[in-house]
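Annotated sample (chain length 362).
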Amino acid sequence: MGVSVVTPTYREADNIRPLAERILATMEAAGADWELILADDDSRDGSEEVALELGRSLPVRIHVRRTRPRDLSQSVLDGIRLARFDRLVVMDADLSHPPEQIPELLAALDGNAGMALGSRYAPGGRIDGAWSRYRTLNSRIATWLTRPLTRCADPMSGFFAVDRRSLPALDELAPVGFKIGLELMVRGGLRVREVPIRFDERHGGSSKLTWRQQLAFLRHLHRLYTFRFGLPVRALSFGAVGLSGLLVDTGFYLGLQWAGVGHLLARFLSFWPAVTWNWRLNRVLTFNDRPADRPVPQWAKFAVASGVGLLTNVGSYAVLTSFVAPFSERRLFALFAGVVIGSAVNFATSTRYVYRRRRKVG
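Output written by the structure step:
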């Protein structure tokens, strides 16, 4: 039985040859057929030339993903689609993941595991090299944030083995950034078995972990939380967006008055940038898994939904303070209750009519 090693690359030309040679030695010792698929994010650093030269004598192929933006996870998915074998190993090209431990991952996969994960933090695993406090803290916080999603010790690992036949449909996946392993284990519901590994410092090149990638990880985490927990996470996200919109509303309201606009007109005008802010942020975050309808009609529907929510908010306040004794004496509670009721109506309307679900075909 053979194995396809899928390696996402971006400007790793210096590491490709030693990686292929170490995989060759490991696979020959194990007596296994293999191939190395380099899923490249359009490096333009000589990676293609190195891969083509290696491909003359070794089962090495390169697939260059020329679309933008660059995305490691999408590169891995492209590599999986091109793989010849059903048993797959995904690993980095910077030589931080030891190719010599591929047979251990495959052996673990032959048990009842859906994914064999090369783990730095499982008993017996270790990190060679001196990590900075920032890098250590960053890794630990990211791991802690995934606890509600998975209980494995090292869910951030990019070194794992899976059987393609146990994966969900690749078109149904929605990864962002680096953590394709986390995407597969959560959306695929895979049973994970961790294999302790020796994680080394990268050899050559430079780290791709930037603040943009960290923001992408948070977006990815938000998607996975929404997938796993559904309505509660979506409602919390909608509420958080609403709070940020309140700040936008207040800022414009005060700014317009500072510019000499009367307070009633300022209150009317400040509503619209806040609605636009909320619509856009909910489109990107709260309902990112739903189709992106044409912007202007969707914005108009969201403005109507927000208006209905605002009327419900004010109406609830009026009713509570006029007819419910405890609230008539404690109007601040009535205000909060009106905000909650109005927000709930806005959320329900937006969920049902503004950001509609995809219709299943067939």
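Annotation: The first helix runs from residue 13 to 30.
Annotation: The radius of gyration is 26 Å.
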